Amino acid sequence: MTVRVDRYRCGYCGACVGVCPNVAIELVETWIAVNDELCESCSICVKICPIGALEVVGG
Amino acid sequence: MIIKKRYDLVVVGAGPAGSSAAKRAAEAGFDVLLIEKRQEIGDPVRCAEGAGKRGIKRHIKPDPRWIAAEVRGSRVFAPDGTRLEISEEGSGVEVGYVLERKIFDRVLAEEAADAGADVMVKTLATGLIREDGRVAGILGRSLGRAVEVRAGLVVGADGVESMVGRWAGIETTLAPGDIETCAQFLLKGVEVDDYCEFYLSNRLAPGGYVWVFPKGDGMANVGIGVLGSRSESGMPIELLTRFVNKNFPSARVVEVVVGGVPVCGPIKRTIADGLMLVGDAARQSDPVTGGGILNALDAGVIAGDVAAESLEKGDVSREALKEYEERWREKIGASLARSLVVKERLVQLSDKDLNTLAHSIKDKDIARMGLFDLLSLLFKTNPRLLWSLRKLF
Q1: Rg (CA), chain B
Q2: Which among A28, A30, A51 has the least Cβ separation from residue B234?
Q3: Contact at 8 Å (CB) between B390 and B358?
Q4: pLDDT tens digits along A35-52
């Protein structure tokens, strides 16, 4: 399980990065990078996304 | 422009906090590098762009290039539409500017450059260099190329998405109840006057508010903040779209802004050996208003000063950097802590409670009050509803 970013929707604001308890997300320049190794699919980032660009996938 | 292998100070992030810190340390004669991961400073905007005039003037001479509009006061709407207006001249909080952050931030970075700091964009920090148990520089990528920059001291001004602090073992993760998740449209073709408007309502914005800030020329920043713990995926943009369709049906959207605003109040620690955090990275934004620019500027200046003093003494240990911790808390810590108490209560209030509060003071002479005086009056008029604020007044 991990989190997938809809790049067409994402506004690369970094809100998801700030709430990730596992430091699994990073806002690189204009895209969100998710580290699948660290992501525990807690879905806090999904709920926090102001624009609905994240979803938990797999597993 | 060549990034050198070694600087006295490396500042990560060229927002208001980072640029002020870089400027101060450079003015004191130190060799400073200010890096920004975006290719353009100040863009994309993640801000409602409102700030008190007095606070801005403390730091920089007002310049029409980055002032989009001036506002005379604030209008707060209760859920049932009850209107409260505060417009005290000189209160500093309510009388303000709506900035053009894209230009404002750039000008601040230019000032750092004028003071002698090296500035480089499209340059991302990817990690920290550690030496003898302290932060001793950054690893990064500049225009896509790997760089390694040693530094006597590092300042993390890398915003809500800060990694620098977490890399150094400082806990800055925001719980969902500690962040406002926000969306904003810059609208063209709206009729607004020179007041900032705030709409409080759990229906419109659960645990947050909707704002309308004039930007001049028939434009306005219309945005929403929803408390993270009460939001769902995409809720801010959906609620905002609904609000705009209803209230500004003929407006055109010329910019979309999204962002997260820390509302956790002062965090326990903002320093490590060889490192200071500042601005949103240090969670220094106001828990009630969400305002962060002035606190970032204040803390940035303090960080720059302490950086200069510590480098001068040759001691950048956590113990020495306590000076930064103490000074920023003295300057803005009490106000952040107070705002946190107010926020924790405000987000619990029902729409009925909010209406009750508005009704209780709507016929009183509040026009010249600042936010704190208004809260104090609200407390005195509604002690039961606001009992948890009793220690503030």
Answers
A1: 21
A2: A51
A3: no
A4: 999 999 999 999 999 999
